[in-house]
Specification:
With 295 residues, the protein is of the alpha/beta class. The chain has eleven helices and twelve strands. The strands form two sheets. Strands 3, 4, 5, 6, 7, 8, 9, 10, 11 and 12 form a ten-stranded mixed β-sheet that branches. It has a two-stranded antiparallel sheet with strand order 1-2. The N and C termini lie far apart (53 Å).
Length: 295
């Protein structure tokens, strides 16, 4: 047994696929398969049930996976500690985020502490962010309400809620709150499919069996904001992201569960990277300091 064999097994266990695991580790599939096979043959054990594109762990594989999770987590912790002592946090951090309002303050705090690290940040909807993290295009992602995934390390750092907003000329511009049924009777200006904001709001409507009167779909939050400011309908946004726009007025939806959790996310196997670990430390500090915005 050697480190490469354990790392190959761990990657396949996380991914549920030899093809995806090979891509993550940057090796060929035959090389990866050879490492796993050598581990199995060397100890006379079967670690995976192989069938089709997906593979599942045997009982013995599950037992070993519990150990390798602790092993690689400990390795990451040691590497992070040593890197900090020696001042070795450097290199490049690739980030994808679903909102500059949440991502930029985190990046500013990180850059202030580690000025030699190059930060590359791009924005997209939640589905795009998650896809890029899983495919190793991004080292870290910042987005809301991530579904559980064994391949990911998810770190919640802020509670928030959705609010609706109207232009200042709208009849609701003097109100502080509305009911969900009232909102559905208006034209909704929603983001494209893949947006967590849209998904949470549509789920609230579905749970109440409410059908919106009409929906106008816009690509990106800025397009939604401009459409609402022009009087085309009612927008939906995270309270934290609403900001200060004198053309707009926000309202709470007082009878619906529109809560969400802002999270930072990385691949479990990338936690051993010093830059990623250092960024997660910043996020953890933010989580301790940030007040909840959920009423």
């Amino acid at each position: 047994m050697n480190h490469s064999q354990l790392r190959a097994f761990h990657a396949v266990a996380l991914e549920g696929s030899f093809t995806r695991a090979a891509a993550v580790l940057g090796v060929s599939q035959p090389t990866l398969s050879g490492h796993v096979k050598a581990l199995e043959t060397g100890y006379g054990v079967k670690l995976f049930n192989r069938g089709g594109r997906e593979v599942t762990m045997t009982d013995f594989g599950h037992a070993l996976f519990e150990i390798t999770q602790r092993y690689f987590a400990s390795q990451a912790e040691a590497q992070r500690l040593l890197s900090k002592v020696e001042g070795l946090i450097q290199g490049r951090l690739r980030c994808w985020a679903d909102s500059p309002f949440t991502a930029v303050p985190l990046m500013a705090a990180f850059k202030g502490r580690f000025p030699t690290v190059q930060i590359d940040i791009e924005f997209g909807n939640s589905a795009e962010v998650l896809k890029n993290v899983l495919e190793n295009v991004a080292d870290v992602g910042i987005l809301a309400s991530i579904p559980p995934d064994k391949r990911l390390h998810i770190l919640p750092f802020r509670e928030d809620r959705l609010v609706v907003f109207v232009d200042r000329g709208h009849p609701w511009s003097q109100k502080r709150s509305v009911r969900l049924e009232e909102v559905a009777e208006q034209t909704l200006v929603l983001r494209e499919a893949g947006s967590t904001t849209r998904a949470i709001f549509e789920r609230a409507l579905t749970n109440r069996r409410i059908e919106p009167k009409s929906v106008l779909v816009m690509e990106g939050r800025e397009a939604v904001r401009e459409a609402v400011a022009a009087g085309l309908g009612i927008g939906v946004v995270c309270d934290y992201e609403f900001g200060f726009d004198t053309r707009l007025h926000k309202l709470d939806v007082n009878d619906a569960d529109l809560q969400l959790t802002e999270c930072a996310v990385c691949r479990r196997d990338s936690r051993i990277e010093p830059v990623v670990s250092a960024f997660l430390d910043i996020v953890e500090e933010t989580a301790r300091q940030a007040p909840s915005r959920v009423a």
